[in-house]
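FIELD: query
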Amino acid sequence: MEAREARPKFSYFPFGGGPRVCIGEPFAWMEGVLLIATIAQRWRMRLAAGQRAEALPMITLRAKFGMRMQVERREAVISHAAMIGSEAEQQEALMER
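FIELD: result
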């Protein structure tokens, strides 16, 4: 606990910086993007009633009032393969033309 108290208030850098930056940072960013994409496939998010969306520019752009959302489950996700059918069905359709 003493080491934590001795550090400056905003000294936490999860991936480090400079020449000793964590080699896992690109993987973590990719994993985050894939996670968000997977969640967005299954869930629809809408701004909650009465919630204002206004930007608060700081070091990064943030939501001034937070982002309260309503989450709704999407209908069944149809895979690309299910939409186009099997390869044999595609070839059969081409031959009929």
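FIELD: remark
The longest helix spans residues 25-42.
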